[in-house]
User: Fold this.
Amino acid sequence: MERNKELKSQMPRICLVSSGDEAGEQSGRLETQLTLLPHHLPCIVQIREKRLSTHELLRLAHRMKLLTLSKKVLLVINERVDIALAAALDGIHLPENGCSPMVLRPLAPTMLFGCSVHSFEASQVAEESGADYLIFGPIFDTPSKRPYGPPQGLEKLRRLCQSTTLPVFALGGVGPENAERCMAEGAYGVAALALFMDTIRFIDTIEQLYHTVTP
Amino acid sequence: MIPASPFLCVITDEALCPVTLAQEALKGGAAMIQLRHKSASGSQLFSWAVAIGKYCQQSEAIFIVNDRLDIAMASGADGVHLGQEDMPAITARKIVGKNYLIGVSAASIHEALEAEKDGADYVGFGHIYPTSSKEKRNSPVGIDTLQQVSAMLTIPILAIGGINSQNAGIIISSGASGVAVISAISRTDDPLYATRKLVDAITTYT
Assistant:
């Protein structure tokens, strides 16, 4: 359990979520991002690649793990505790339709368990099930989430942060220009996918974001 | 844990509720159920796995989950079945230890030998005959190859692919420990009856 406490006490305030495109034309972007990531900058890197086979995911996880060795990165993977164990990752991230952290925790007691939530009810369930952190969104308008309805907004972010003791990462249209507003509402940090896709500007973007979210 | 006498393994089909199919198959005498669903969410898979696991326990049948070792372990399944695109058996073995069933799909003698070397408890070998149930990497391996691989492996072989009550006998007499089926059970009007007929064919071969 000490390891779990240690992970929680040094939880980064930025979460980089993979694009889901590693199976297609953008294969290799995640490794490029991780290579570019400055050594001093703490970051959660979330592998979320639904289109890869288990064997491909495992190989990606192994390669990513090697790239994190000299960095302040916590490497987590969506859902797959088995891959997290096999590649000695730091944690698991669960979508709202994933397994409960309660049933998975015994398989990996020291790992971090994050949960994506889109409502107060889901946030409460996640906290009661033993989640270590939450990702809540979408906060702002973002093209990929438009089909699911309007964004949740800052007011809801504030109320959600007040209703839970867990660290909350704000997701959805968040970048250096508006991250401060999320932090002002009580977010612990920010999470993003699209923001980091431009690997030419990646270092500038993540440095700016880091300065905005660091207290 | 794998039955000593010839047995039937029923693999769930995405077209039907896996729990209902498993219940019918168990009533019909299946000794092993494999939950296989590539598109279900984690929580859906987990709840199916818990339900099927409970029915298998009541019927003293073996319950395994395809590919998702995480779901297999979380639900208390007896084992996991790994395809060639899934986690390597040798990696899975490090996670689960000795007392957990690991099955591996093999479509050639080479893959079957590798699976045994990697610590698999059984090999799912096929497809033996042409079949429509799954996308195929190879052409059917045929009975001769099944006989060859039976002679070379020490672990049990579950033959799969186009097996029905007419040809199940020859499969067992060719050295397979059992038969695994999907569509032969799921794509019938009466899965319970279809299971019973197959189990009879497997257990009464001459």
